[in-house]
Amino acid sequence: MASPRLNSQMFAGPRRDARLQGRPRLAGCSLYILIVLLVLVLFESYHRLGPVDFGRSSPTPVRCSKVAHPVNHAEFSRGARVIDSLTTASLDIPIPDLYSSTFVDPDAKRQALTSHGPPSIPEAALGLFDDARALWFFAGAEGLLTVALTRPTLVTTVRLQGHGVARTCLPRHINVWGLVTPPDEQRIPWNLFDWPGGEFPLPLRAPFERERSYFTSSARPRWVPMGHSDHISPTGNSTDISVMSAVVTAQLPVHVVSIEFKRNWGAEYTCFSGLGLFDSLDVSGI
Question: Has keyword Transmembrane helix (predicted)?
Fold first, then answer.
């Protein structure tokens, strides 16, 4: 028979263990709280700074539109559309070199050159096709490409997108025109029209005539010269044309931009790779 003292010791042991297990473990809780706080601090720092990308330099941010890269307002994906009535008709004959490419197999090359591919349409200049080598063709050396923008934009740079291949059909001399609507047209400086680009193209005059109303002092939108270049390189590289300082200084937003082709490099037809319109102040976002 076990002694009472032994029984008391047998039952006392587990009770002491239970009391020890029930006590709060302050050291473990403190370490857990410290880890949680450290994770929160690191997450807040990452959220504030964002991921850092080393090795790439970002272009100058666009003011007011709050993006970290230049925005091409002439892109089809951004809503820019060609105005057919103010654009030269596309060349309807097959262009065998609509896309420049090389083939190792001679049979594949022969079959590909007899294929016409997608039609030559002016939307190719707005980036409609995924292939950046796509060109828009029209007959002759003179023509127009008129593009409506989704919102009024103060354009500071006009870019002729590079094709990468030297061609005699690429433009050599172009003028750039922009449509300014009331009431912005009242701020047009009249000396802006004293420029060496040449006469205003007649096809651009009629479609935007408006009747004078009781509420407007001027009833007619006005085309203003934005810039020109009379010696564009035929190498197929991109060419940037700075918009005239008078247009930028007066902060004249344009709704429509028209590229007037004057000459190419000697071909019987003209080809054009792509149009870029970049802003530094988007007035619609203010």
Answer: yes
